[in-house]
Structure of Dihydroxyacetone kinase subunit L:
Amino acid sequence: MGGVTVEDGVSTPGSLGVAWARAWVEASADVMRQNRMALIDLDRAIGDGDHGENMDRGFTAVLGKLQSTETETIGDVLALVAKTLMSTVGGAAGPLYGTAYLRASKAAGTTLDAAGVADVLEAALGGIVARGKADREDKTMVDAWGPASEAARDVARAGGSGVEAVQAAAEAAQAGAVATEPLTARKGRASYLGARSVGHRDPGAQSTALLLDAAAAAAREGERG
């Protein structure tokens, strides 16, 4: 894959490896715990109110699995996340996030440069679209994953690093989540509200932004370390 940046087992500066992937899981569990109530409140407005609880439970379970499992590659870590979320997260989030991480695991190389980050995010997005049948501006997590994957690809085209790509992706995901507020929901439980969904941020888009921000934080920490 074009995103692998290993020559004789040595990664290039600014690339991301399995240590980053494990740190991402740890940061994800932390951010889901911290934002549990905020996500519940978002979901209460246009859904059934369980998104924060489900995501917190899911990533707590992922963290427990990770701590007792040997992982040699980024793909191993992402596959573990996928399987655990599918078995522990209820509602639509479990299958959607599970499929996203599973597709991402298959796209991940030993280490990731900017192109590799874009490949992984595009694979995750493709999994979500295939599973949820949603498009951009349907007021779903696609509205965060789409801009994130595009931002990472832009960094790759400009010759940036993997760390820069994941940071750009996180910023784009957050902007995408905010941009769901004026939209009318066309998919999922929120779609039943029609025009009443306007003015509320999509909880799945916001949890996506939080997870990608955790990825960026783990990348920055790894670069400093």
Q: What stands out?
A: The beta strands are 6-7, 10-11. DSSP finds nine helices and two strands in the chain. The chain has a mean pLDDT of 93.
